[in-house]
Amino acid sequence: MENENQLIRQRKEKLQKIRELGINPYPPRCKFTHYTDEIKKHSQKIIEQNTEVSIAGRIRSLRNMGRASFAHIEDKYGKIQIYVREDKVGKDNYKLYKQLDLGDIIYVNGNVFRTKTGELTIVANKIELLTKTIRPIPVVKEKETETGEKLRYDVFADVELRYRKRYLDLLLNKDVCNVFQKRALIIKKIREFLDTNGFCEVETPILQPVYGGANARPFITHHNTLDIDLYLRIAVELYLKRLIIGGMDRVYELAKTFRNEGMDRLHNPEFTLLELYQAYGDYNDMMDLLEDLLIFLVKEVSGNNVIKIGAKEITFKKPFYRLSMIDLIKEHTDFDPSDFDRDQLIKFCKNHNIEYKEYMPTGKLIEQIFAKFVENKLIQPTYVVDFPKDISPLAKTKEDNPLFVERFELFINGEEYGNAFTELNDPIEQRDRLEKQAKLRDLGDVSANVVDEDFLEALEYGMPPTGGLGVGIDRLVMLLTNSTSIKDVILFPQMKPIK
RNA sequence: GGGCCUGUAACUCAGUGGUAGAGUAUCUGCCUUUUAAGCAGAGAGUCGAUGGUUCAAAUCCAUCCAGGCUCACCA
């Protein structure tokens, strides 16, 4: 683009001028004494003692007035104003300063004072260039109102550009930075919580010869030396269960996981899944654990047990609601699916514009009715318990009703945040269930589970009764940072390539 | 995939058939406590792309590309 060339050309010319001054525009290192927040925090002492300070950061505003200039320098903690006078820094240094642009990264050394209007300012003794930028950086201006409120002008808001050039987004939109710092905090606290509860963090294969543990289509790749296709994992369940069989009683993995399916506000092809397994536990233990974990996380992030989403307030306190899927459907539809009467269910689905396919298990119809009529009504944290067996091939059958399994999903604000069950450990029943899944696949269900012979063999060596839990970390971060799109909590979300 | 909306300068946007605009940014000049610094001047565009209608298209039509919201599907 001609125009961009103009702006870049001008900056390259400045680069040349700087080199002609005998200055390296990309020096290898820099030592500074203070971050901006330290200067602000200890300003009184620094001013009283006339302490010399030095900072490093990016030029975010420039106000040049002949032989003196003001600018704002930003580091990771915020901005501070600098005041550069030709008579103070000397002619040569001021010449360098005149060649600087918005976005350049500089070192400033000087003393601190307050201007007429009271702004804390470093009056420079010396400026050093640390990195010259040659591409113009979008300009966002800020003004503080009388009430202390910050008005922002020309905000860098193009959503596509923000995702594609995340470095600019982080630079120009401070709250974006906060979201990812919170994400880091949440993950750190999850580890802390699980570690103190006796869980061991493990790493299992991302490249798997057989994929399993969830209903989803995988990405396929190829290993050249072995000359075999491998799948990017869609879950870590079957590997973690092998570890339970091996005697690692409590394990978890924060697993980057890949599903080759649709993308939207809630789905990115790669996402982070927490899975954990606890030997000698069941799904009730998982409910207790998940409650404790979430209450802990909400406290760490928001300071109390309440999250605000728009006008809604969500309160986290023990115990969460625990309601069965069937009871919830009855409550919200006046329809009772508890007898699994397939004809009645098909009729209900057709009447209510719910997709029906011949191969769908009866439980799938029930789940779809639940999804349509109940899910978005569940605002406060609610465990939906007891799922149909035919859509839960890895969960243990309920002792008092063979149509259902010991499984729950957690719903908050109408969306799912966790999925857990008492794990099926009967190797013969497990084989039977996976083979039924394989039949579904033959009938056209592309997301059905595949039979994992190695896993079935492992189960035959005996897995203790076990509770297992999966939590979508990206969505949890969305919830705790009040983000509406998964793209806002993933630094580099998947985008279509630019043609 | 369906519906609605958006795409114009580096950034934020105006412009609904008749010579491509504004503010910011950039460049030049003046300016040593400014702060969305100011004043004066200048440069900067494949109007998302391609085709069509028209004497004339940023504007109307078609197709495509990219994005957002939403519904459906999918965990």
Helix content: 25-40%
Q: Helix segment count?
A: 16
Estimated radius of gyration: 29 Å
> From the helix content, strand content and strand pairing, which structural class follows?
alpha+beta
Distance between the termini: 16 Å
> Beta-strand level of the residues, as a percent range?
25-35%
Characterize the biggest β-sheet.
Answer: 9 strands, mixed
According to DSSP, the number of beta strands is 21
Q: Give unreliable regions as ranges.
A: none
Shape: elongated
Can you give the mean pLDDT? 92
Overview of this protein structure:
The protein has 499 residues and is of the alpha+beta class. The protein is 34% helix and 28% strand. The strands form 5 sheets. Strands 8, 12, 13, 16, 17, 18, 19, 20 and 21 form a 9-stranded mixed β-sheet that branches. Helix 11 (325-333) crosses helix 13 (362-373). The mean pLDDT is 92.
How are the SSEs placed, and which strands pair?
Blueprint: H1 2-20, H2 36-41, H3 43-48, E1 52-65, E2 68-75, E3 78-85, H4 86-89, H5 91-98, E4 105-114, E5 120-131, E6 141-144, E7 150-153, H6 159-164, H7 166-172, H8 174-196, E8 200-201, E9 207-208, E10 220-223, E11 228-232, H9 237-245, E12 250-258, E13 270-279, H10 283-302, E14 306-309, E15 312-315, E16 321-324, H11 325-333, H12 342-351, H13 362-373, E17 382-388, E18 397-398, E19 401-412, E20 415-422, H14 427-442, H15 453-460, E21 466-472, H16 473-481
Parallel strand pairs: 3-5, 8-12, 16-17
Antiparallel strand pairs: 1-2, 1-4, 2-3, 4-5, 6-7, 9-11, 10-11, 12-13, 13-21, 14-15, 17-19, 18-19, 19-20, 20-21
Helix pairs in contact: 7-8, 8-10, 8-16, 11-13, 12-13, 14-15
The structure holds one RNA strand of 75 nucleotides.
